[in-house]
Amino acid sequence: MRIKAGIEKIPGGMMVVPLFFGALLNTLAPETATYFGGFTGALLTGTSAILAVFFFCVGATIDVKQSGYIAKKGLTLLIGKVGFAALLGYGAALFLPENGIQSGLFAGLSVLVIIAAFNETNGGLYTALMTKLGRTEDAAAFPFISIESGPFFTMIILGVGGLATFPWQTIVSTLIPFAAGMIIGNIDKEMRAFLGQAVPVLIPFFALSLGFGLDFGMIVRSGFMGVLMGVAVVLLSGGVLYLMDRYITGSDGVAGVAASSTAGAAVAVPFIIAELNPQFAPVAESATAIIATSVLVTALLTPIFTMWVAKLQIKRGIPQRKYKNGSSNSYSDQSKII
């Protein structure tokens, strides 16, 4: 029985499926963690500990020694993604109530869910798309995209915009595992390779724990808002990142579109933020459910959008990359996108 292959047929399956089962378990048997306790209880409620290990391993994958083009590409996508999320969040704060919309078609919509859904890219999906297109340099920008992982940028956006306050120790605490992993990974390449293998392994475990904090009914009720959020992430952030990639990095914009997704790790952000600042507790559950749906939707739409733009740019004769001497290059194998 090929369980892994079956799960991976679902976009974002390693995140979505365990999250679903965790929510189902919490809905049918909410006392499971306290009834059994011990390791079982820790597995179902130990989200913070699992995430700390996850972010440590993600940090270890980052190589600070990158070529100029790769660094420029990665930083452009990073700044564009986070900056656009901040602008949307600040704009939404002018119209949305503090605890978000509680009823109606847009129930669950809040400033927290907008920022968290928009400011993290699915790095695995981005790398897979760039690799499929034979764009190794663009794929190498993955470490910069990985920096978006976790609650750090969401906290910074909320704090800078005056939407929330966090003690400096709290902000630094979210960076320590990531920074420690990055230091270890750059001191020893073998440790980078070793710890990097754990990143995909940990995803279903923190997804299960996150799911156990959700009510299955909330997932169903947030379905429309989650789908709408996913479509908005692809179209809006995809458009912005396309323009930045096109005119700042001198590329054809395809990599920018490939970054128009919501990362699976973003599902954990509302829980972490609410734990650090209780003012977000009322919207954390609905935000988690909406972001989980957005992860699924963007995992479906981003590849379609990316391949369409790649084909369009070839038809328009726009090169994959322009060099300082005026030369350019195109796809070495156009069959990869047909």
What does this protein look like?
With 338 residues, this protein is mainly alpha-helical. The protein has 19 helices and 2 strands. The chain has helices spanning 3-8, 13-28, 32-36, 38-45, 47-60, 68-93, 111-118, 123-132, 136-139, 142-146, 152-160, 168-187, 189-196, 198-211, 216-221, 223-247, 254-258, 269-276, 281-316; strands at residues 321-322, 328-329. The chain has a two-stranded antiparallel sheet with strand order 1-2. Residues 331-338 have low confidence and may be disordered. It comes from Cytobacillus horneckiae. Belongs to the KdgT transporter family. GO terms for molecular function: 2-keto-3-deoxygluconate:proton symporter activity. Keywords: Cell membrane, Membrane, Sugar transport, Symport, Transmembrane, Transmembrane helix, Transport.
Write the H/E string, N to C: HHHHHHHHHHHHHHHHHHHEE
Helical content stands at 55-70%
Output the strand order for the largest sheet.
Answer: 1-2
Secondary-structure-based class equals mainly alpha
Average of the residue pLDDT scores: 85
Sheet of most strands = 2 strands, antiparallel
| Shape designation | globular
CATH topology (fold) name: Na+/H+ antiporter like fold
* Top-tier CATH class: Mainly Alpha
The CATH architecture category equals: Up-down Bundle
Per DSSP, the total helix count is: 19
Radius of gyration equals: 20 Å
Family: Belongs to the KdgT transporter family.
GO cellular component, one term: membrane
Keywords: Cell membrane, Membrane, Sugar transport, Symport, Transmembrane, Transmembrane helix, Transport
Protein name: 2-keto-3-deoxygluconate permease
